[in-house]
Amino acid sequence: LFGNNAPVIPRTCGAIDRRFCSRPERTLEGKIALITGAASGIGKATAAKFIANGAKVVIADVNHELGQEAAEELGPDARFTPCDVSKELDVSNAVDFTVSQHGRLDIMFNNAGIACTTPASIVDLDLDRFDRVMAINVRGVVAGIKHASRVMIPNRAGSILCTASVVGILGGMAQLTYSLSKSSVIGIVRSASPELGRHGIRINCISPFAIPTRLVMDEMNHHYTGVGNQRIVDIIHGAGALEGTSCEPIDIANAALYLASDGAKYVSGHNLVVDGGFTVFKSLGF
Ligand code: NAD
Questions:
Q1: Ligand 1 binding pocket includes 205 (Cβ within 6 Å)
Q2: I need a surface site. Which of 2, 137, 236, 245 has the fewest CB within 10 A?
Q3: Which Pfam families did the record assign (predicted)?
């Protein structure tokens, strides 16, 4: 391939790095994580996964009752702080609460989000609802990145994660407002990664396929009134591209664990799609 100009490959190149082989478990030992929207669904599953891997987690959620319950259920390594991500002061306070409790912030997961039913025609689009979705799904994520960076930059380290969605890649009129908010999350991650990278901070997002969490069930019940929860779960699972399995919160928690850990120490600006091949399937036109 290189003719007479073959590169001299250092002897260390390809050597096994024992740091990553010798500790296959508890990859977040001693790390401090803040997860928004962790009172239920993907955020709660990720909080449990992070704790099982040695992290201490602060759950930030607008739902005080569920958030407190989740913290109690997850045990002494979980704490709850009330936070509405559409309010910058709440996000700033959640970051400061984490630092005051644990001394620093290593992992910020901007996961909180809401769904949005979009009318069949753009002519009927509710722009007040549009503003609310953007305030949580986009502004809330930007606020999370801003305030996590504020405390991570002086430490010259950190991992920021955000939850996007497959519809942020595929788009679609059926979910115009929501899709746009999630495309924006993918865009923010790409845009912020060069600057944060210069401070040793990685930023990535995850795009899940549909999972029947509270957010999705509420939305689908709105669409399919009277159909019943089990039928809706069947519709969601039936839409997947991978036979014999379906997307669950734990699949996203596993992706988040990887991206948050040192195993992904050279991964930044990336959108990790967890969809069983759905977006490829769709782009091929099947
Ligand atoms: P969920 O309803 O179980 O969890 C969402 C959490 O966010 C809830 O605990 C809710 O109280 C919280 N929340 C809502 N508004 C908030 C606000 N203003 N401030 C703070 N917290 C707020 O749903 P989920 O599916 O686990 O959703 C988590 C994320 O995953 C969302 O960003 C969602 O858009 C995204 N997502 C979900 C799916 C899916 O199919 N479930 C697919 C792709 C992306």
A1: no
A2: 2
A3: adh_short_C2 (PF13561)
